[in-house]
Amino acid sequence: MVQELFDRATKCFKEQLPFVVYSKPNETELVGVFQHNDAVHKVKDFTETGFVFAPFDLNSDAILLKLDAVEKVRLNRSLEVAVHEDNMPKCDAIEKEGYIKLISKAIDRIHQGDFNKVVLSRKIEVDCKDDNFKVFQRILSVYKQAFCYFWYHPKIGTWMGATPEILVKSNGAQFTTMSLAGTQNSVDDNEPIWTAKELHEQQLVTDYIFDTLKEKVNSLNSLERGSVKAGRLWHLRTEMKGTFSPNKFGDAIKALHPTPAVCGSPLENAKQFIFENERYERTFYTGFLGELNTKTELSRNRNRRNQENSAYRSVVRSSELYVNLRCMQMFQGKAEIYVGGGITSDSIPEKEWEETVLKSRTMYRVLGSK
């Protein structure tokens, strides 16, 4: 029962024990991972097993929750929970002015040739008097096509979100990743017409991921670009598939993160601009999270009629990691919502501000306080 899993997580929250509760896109299963003590386990080389919560800057520590107890329950996705459709953050004139100045500075640097794209972000502090579990129930109800999570560690903090973007999935030596960029609002569920700026921005991400990964993996293929809907927003997506050598999954992760979709390109120049000019520290926003090297049992017998050999199974390690977008950090009586967007030479600062306002609704509409 979902309520029993929530009750267990609530008990952990009160006793200050780490946990994460999550559901994968379009799946009817809710998973709870519970760690039996409050130790902070740090990832060394991504050969570890557990639930990873990694920051934007991998020079900082990625946190691993140990799988001391794992509970899975059926999630009824047909249940509708009321959300606050008219909730919108109040426009902060000082925040807007500062963010637009930051975007203008980035565009000037692009024209100077320092980089061709940089992803700039901001955080919005809002009141939140609701119980965290009520907020998470709304997230689960509204964002069925996203990776929905509620993560807590007493020594790190409380985060939740609904992210549409896969960093990488692996099953044995096979992996899938994607480039996701460009944002448009959903209008009558019609697929959007993308602008040259949006197509260019997404292609930059695709080219970077492909060129960076091809030297780190055994094989890599890129699929056709298409549009994908996440909540009320549309994005451009290109999937890539390939294989990697044994014990080299960590190399692929480090090559992938951060992608130009959350940082920019050339990567190091864009990252340096972010560190020097963004007016806050991202910590885990635009990092990644998910299952790391969990065991999956596969049947070697593909002939269902041949039951004699059905007992012969192989165990492989699987990972499913998501970029930490559309997320917020929870505090006593408030939440901090994180939003951002890609800046290129074609960007218009006012429109980029409006895009972050639009993206903020993903989390703001599930909060109970206006």
Task: Give a verbal description of the structure.
This is Isochorismate synthase. Strands 3, 4, 5, 10, 11, 12, 13, 14, 16 and 17 form a ten-stranded antiparallel sheet that branches. A nine-stranded antiparallel sheet has the order 6-2-1-8-9-18-19-7-15. 40% of the residues are buried. The two termini are 31 Å apart. It has one domain: Anthranilate synthase, CATH 3.60.120.10. Helix 2 crosses helix 7. It has seven helices and 19 strands. The mean pLDDT is 89. By secondary structure, it is α+β, with helices and mostly antiparallel strands.
What characteristics describe this protein?
Chorismate_C, 7 helices, globular, 9-stranded antiparallel β-sheet
The CATH fourth-level homologous superfamily: Anthranilate synthase
Largest sheet: 10 strands, antiparallel
Unreliable runs: none
CATH fold topology: Anthranilate synthase
Helix content: 25-40%
* Strand coverage percent: 35-45%
Structural class: alpha+beta
Number of strands: 19
Helix-strand pattern = HEEEEEEHEHEEEEHEEEHEHEEEEH
The pLDDT mean sits at 89
Over all CA atoms, what is the radius of gyration? 21 Å
Shape: globular
Number of discrete domains:
1
CATH-level-2 architecture: 4-Layer Sandwich
**Gap between N and C termini, in Å?**
31 Å
By DSSP (H or I, 4+ residues per run), the number of helices equals 7
Q: Which CATH first-tier class would you pick?
A: Alpha Beta
Protein name: Isochorismate synthase
Pfam family, one: Chorismate_bind
Organism: Maribacter ulvicola
